[in-house]
Write a structure and sequence with these properties.
mainly alpha, 12 helices, about 70% helix, about 290 residues
């Protein structure tokens, strides 16, 4: 293969990898949190897990096929994104690979074979749907984003808008307004008592809500601190609305996550007056909501 032809294939491969990784980022951050079917609400964890595993598998296969067809030789040190530096595998990446191999060995030799692969049993015990395939997809998510994805403002704005919809639905449920029930979306609506409204939304479980909120609150607070355009206030709105949903659920794990994230970013925030002003504005919005 000539050098010019090889460069052409590489450029074509970069474009495909960029599209695939961007689609994956938007799918996981914006589509998956909103995804919910018309069936029984108690199966929401199962439904999201199946979608996540299937979607990750499709994107991973597309990426491997692209690498095989457009690169002369696969090298782990490459980011496979234009204008990005090359570097060897980091300690954290090798640790993740070791963890997945250990998880695989644990699944192979486990006496509970009907549980360890998919995270549920066939005798009626559903579990948490956190089997080996889910853990493998978590690892693939890390490598797809770290090695192939290049952040763009549009992607983050889509994520922010999606998170606001998730939060708005949860807040409305808490005040007794469930649009999916009132419009007949659910085929078999479950009669939850009022307190359960605080941890349903489109995420389903209070622990998942807490984890999601802590990520969204800190991430968009940081993005608002550095964003110089008018779109920055959408990040502020996303952070504030997620904080409102966290306050409603009362998830202690979410508060711990937010506290840890904000403490770790203190040196970055106080080193610039603009960032400090915006972080103080964000904190003010949280206080008003609370």
């Amino acid at each position: 293969m000539s050098k010019a032809k090889s460069n052409g294939h590489e450029k074509y491969g970069h474009a495909i990898l960029s599209i695939l990784s961007a689609a994956f980022f938007i799918g996981v951050t914006a589509v998956l949190p909103l995804y919910i079917t018309r069936f029984e609400y108690l199966f929401i964890t199962k439904q999201k897990t199946e979608l996540f595993i299937s979607f990750t598998a499709v994107i991973a296969v597309g990426i491997f096929a692209t690498l095989f067809l457009t690169t002369a030789r696969f090298q782990v040190k490459n980011y496979f994104a234009p204008n990005e530096p090359k570097r060897p595998m980091s300690v954290s990446e090798w640790a993740l690979v070791a963890f997945i191999l250990l998880t695989l060995a644990s699944a192979v030799f486990s006496p509970w074979q009907d549980f360890v692969w998919r995270g549920f049993t066939t005798n009626g015990i559903q579990g948490r749907w956190e089997g080996f395939w889910a853990f493998l997809c978590y690892a693939l998510t890390f490598f797809i984003i770290a090695r192939f994805y290049r952040p763009k403002r549009l992607h983050l704005l889509i994520f922010a808008f999606s998170s606001m919809l998730v939060s708005l639905y949860g807040i409305m449920q808490f005040f007794g307004v469930d649009v999916l029930v009132s419009t007949g979306f659910f085929l078999h609506p479950t009669d939850f008592d009022p307190i359960s409204r605080s941890f349903r939304t489109t995420l389903g479980n209070i622990n998942i809500v807490s984890a999601y909120c802590s990520l969204v609150i800190v991430l968009f607070a940081a993005l608002f601190a550095v964003e110089g355009s008018r779109w920055g206030f959408l990040y502020l709105a996303a952070s504030a609305s997620a904080y409102a949903m966290l306050a409603i659920t009362g998830g202690d794990a979410g508060y711990v996550g937010v506290l840890g994230g904000m403490v770790l970013t203190i040196p970055y925030c106080v080193s610039d007056r603009k960032r400090l002003r915006r972080i103080l504005l964000t904190l003010s919005s949280w206080c008003v909501i609370y």
